[in-house]
Write a structure and sequence with these properties.
By secondary structure, this protein is an alpha/beta fold. Helices cover 27% and strands 23% of the residues. The radius of gyration is 25 Å and the shape is globular.
């Protein structure tokens, strides 16, 4: 255990364990603050586990979780309040101790000279130079001073962010644009279903981020800590301030793995997998290809989720493999869906139901996964049928494919950009923010009632680009998004039900019925998914080439 003294009444440490708590008590510590969010690491004890043992030892314990690089002003306020109220001395910890040292430094900004704060943290092995300006500003973010400013700033370099940057550059080559994203890699996420089905290799779904940022677009490799739309400013990690004239918000959504008790600890082992993560999709295929008998269960959480058909795709491709291997009758397949229908657009249900019957899949509606014991091979679901009390049921498994709960990123959910549910609040046609007229959003993070898919982003990017250019030219919005989304449902190897629909579940097929009837399984649709869509993604959508994605002109409403 590595406890470091910051002051006579405050200490910092990297991650501690239950076994460390007695030693903490023996050193005279009276209270502990946890600054590490649960589920950040696979070997990390939860706050509740530590707090239970700490309480038995007479230690007070508080939970103020802070994501790496995202110490918000509100976090500092809460930390200072707890630090003042708790019995002294206090120990704070996170993964390395840096977040805790940063919180202390900012909390002391009005109580101690800057030099003393830097000296105390440096002596403990923590460098606070990255937040010096913030400490000097009384511990709060100095949004009035910009480190950089751009005509357009795009938050997120996923499918939406790079596509809209490329579309903007195609329209106005001289536009000064910055894309903000901390990731080194960019993933073609629609391919992960195929990886889990043994069709694609995982490495074929990834490119380096630097190779995809459009020429002439500035890449700020950082995380956004907070949004200040009233001041046209973004706060990045390290307290850097970026100003903008127009903002595009598309950081994607957050996969809430910790929303299922016990899931983080067992992912990637004990038969627990998910195609929603690059590193886990190959494990899905390992489990499927090695399974000869037993129980396989597949889960779907409450909406909204990215690609609502993905949980079913995993089932059908797995069941098709087991059918081809002649073991399907020895495997009990269950689909546990928190919703009440097989698919949200009724026109596609008959085709999907025929495969449910073919593979003998047990349908369990209103079943929401809440806890899992990987080593024990047990899962628990809350069953919330209409007009009935919630019942918790236990299901044993040999393999389980989990679709995690999903929500807006934390920095969005707590910002002025969000609606009551945490999503960016936009006009569903123009994709312009309802309150802040110089802000647009697209992709998974905004609240328009469309399917959250890459195909939707492909249609949204030109609309946002058109409307931003119109705004720059002093005009009203000129293009509208009709809610288009596509979900190629891989019902067997070689056949796909190509679901294409817009707002309200209106069918929006891209091809004539005689070529591809989206309500029926199609080999041509499989060819589209396997051979055509990946190149369209990499070579067209991310390059500003808007094939089959020309913006629809805005009509009077």
């Amino acid at each position: 255990m590595d406890i470091r003294k910051i002051s006579g009444q405050f200490f910092v440490a990297p991650q501690i364990s239950e076994a460390d708590l007695a030693a903490v008590k023996a050193q005279g510590i009276q209270s502990i603050i946890c600054n590490r969010p649960d589920g950040e690491g696979a070997d990390q004890p939860t706050f509740e586990e530590l707090a239970r043992t700490a309480g038995m030892l007479g230690l007070d314990m508080r939970y103020i979780p802070v994501s790496g690089g995202m110490v918000l002003d509100a976090d500092v306020y809460n930390f200072a309040a707890e630090l003042d109220a708790l019995r002294k001395p206090v120990l704070a910890y996170c993964r390395t101790g840096t977040r805790s040292a940063t919180l202390w430094s900012l909390a002391q900004a009005t109580n101690m000279p800057l030099a003393d704060i830097l000296s105390a943290t440096k002596a403990a092995g923590y460098d606070m130079n990255g937040v010096v300006r913030r400490i000097a500003n009384g511990g709060t973010t100095p949004v009035g001073q910009a480190d950089a400013s751009y005509e357009v700033v795009i938050v997120g370099a996923g499918a939406s962010g790079i596509a809209v940057a490329a579309s903007l550059k195609a329209r106005k080559p001289d536009l000064k644009i910055a894309v903000i994203d901390p990731a080194d890699a960019h993933y073609y996420q629609p391919g992960w279903t195929m990886v889990g089905g043994g069709i694609f290799e995982a490495e074929d779904t990834v490119r380096t981020m630097g190779s995809l940022i459009p020429k002439g677009v500035h890449w700020l490799k950082a995380a956004v800590a907070a949004c200040e739309p009233e001041k046209d400013a973004l706060i990045l990690d390290g307290c850097r301030v970026v100003k903008y004239k127009r903002l595009v918000v598309c950081p994607g959504l957050k996969l809430d793995w910790v929303g299922v008790e016990g899931l983080v600890e067992t992912l990637g082992r004990n038969g627990v997998t998910s195609n929603y993560r690059y590193d886990l999709a190959p494990y899905t295929w390992e489990l499927v290809s090695g399974m000869k008998s037993g129980r396989a269960i597949f889960t779907q959480p409450p909406m909204p989720i990215k690609c609502a058909g993905a949980p079913q795709k995993a089932i059908y491709l797995s069941a098709d493999h087991w059918t081809r291997q002649g073991v399907i009758n020895d495997i009990d397949i269950g689909f546990h869906n928190a919703g009440g229908v097989l698919f949200g657009v009724k026109d596609y249900v008959p085709a999907l139901q025929s495969y449910v019957d073919k593979y003998q899949i047990g349908l369990n509606f209103f079943n929401n996964l809440v806890a899992i014991d990987g080593p024990g091979k047990k899962a628990w679901f809350d069953v919330a049928k209409p007009d009935a009390p919630v019942e918790r049921v236990q299901v044993d498994f040999d393999m389980i494919h989990v679709t995690p709960p999903q929500c807006a990123p934390d920095f969005i959910a707590v910002s002025p950009l969000a609606d009551a549910a945490g999503w960016v609040d936009v006009d569903q046609a123009t994709l312009r923010h309802k309150t802040f007229e110089n802000i647009w959003s697209l992709g998974d993070v905004m609240n328009a009632p469309n399917a959250k898919t890459a195909a939707a982003a492909r249609k949204q990017a030109p609309v946002v680009a058109d409307n931003i250019v119109a705004d720059i030219n002093g005009r009203a919005p000129v293009s509208q998004y009709d809610g288009y989304g596509s979900c190629p449902l891989t019902v067997e190897r070689g056949k796909i039900v190509l679901a294409e629909f817009g707002y309200g579940g209106t069918l929006q097929p891209s091809f004539p019925n005689w070529l591809i009837d989206g309500t029926k399984p199609s080999r041509l649709a499989w060819l589209l998914k396997e051979k055509i869509l990946p190149p369209v993604y990499w070579k067209a959508m991310l390059k500003g080439r808007e094939w089959l994605a020309e913006p629809e002109k805005l009509t009077a409403r």
